[in-house]
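Obj: model holo form, ligand = protoporphyrin IX containing FE.
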Amino acid sequence: MGLRLLMLLLLLLPAQQLVAASEAAANVPIYFSNPGAEVWNAVRQRDDLVLPARTQAPRPDDAVLIDIEGENFRHFRDEKLTRYGGWAMAGILILLALYHLVHGPVRIVDGESGSRIERFKRYDLILHWVLAGTFLILAVTGLLFLFGRLVIIPWLGIEAFGPIALAGKWIHNLLGPPFAVVLVLFFIRFVGKNLPRAADIVWLAKLGGFLGNSHPPAGFFNAGEKILFWLLIVIGAGISVSGLVLDFPFVVDSAREPLRLAQVIHGLTTVALMAVIIGHIYLGSVGTEGTLQSMTRGNVDTNWAKTHHSLWYEEVSSQQGKPEKSADPEKS
Ligand code: HEM
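Output (holo structure tokens):
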């Protein structure tokens, strides 16, 4: 009996030791000092690195192994720009559709007279439509980069998205420089007609007649068109410069920071100009009766001129006399 008790004690003692040891081990936090983690921390936060990374490659950023700013950029582009840019454009479309539904198009006072007056030369029409054409193609291909994955892949499938995106990229890259050139020509041609005049203050104070359905006097371009012109020039310059940097990255040594900045500026400015141009396309076509012919035929009905640009109409008719005959080459 005494021997059995001794054996039991001899077995229980180490068992109790084992249980105590395992209990203690379970309560102690497991901490592995992983040398790999320190290396990766040093690689990610390069400013803390005592010894800077060295490389045989001479170009900027080649010694940066992990670019932590890239994650912030991805967040801005994929989450902020797509979401708020999409909302801005959809918001403008919805507002215009509601306005059109409630208000309808702005009519020519007294309707068409049948006599016409020259407004734009052939060169003006070519300039406008080349600028509009390049901008619209750039806008569609640009939107393809921003929303293509979300829209095209579920719609046409991933196999179709590849070639479409590649074609879009080539078209976008090639059309960027012509857009910048036409923008400069457009500026030179129309800057004179877009300088501010006293009548613009009255026009703006009356919000272009938006409230009360009046038609405040305006010269060749009204204050709204002048604002469009200057927005186009200033935002268009931002789009062009940032786009050219992205097209020809060697001008900034292909360094990440200026390229990222160019991409942020390009994204914000293009979304802003697209929202502005959506409004312009509406007002230049279905939103205002008789306006589109100004840019398709180069001439307008005299009653249209009296309604929207009365000061310009007075100027022209005092110089040339009131137009009796049609100035429309298709009709005369
Ligand atoms: C389908 C698309 C477009 C239509 C239907 C359209 C229509 C028009 C019309 C009718 C005018 C003449 C307005 C007047 O006689 O007072 C005009 C002028 C103008 N358009 Fe467009 N347009 C379009 C696209 C664009 C685009 C994409 C841009 C710019 C990227 C643009 C920029 C301008 C500018 C700046 C003016 C002259 C206003 C000024 O200089 O102040 N247009 N457009």
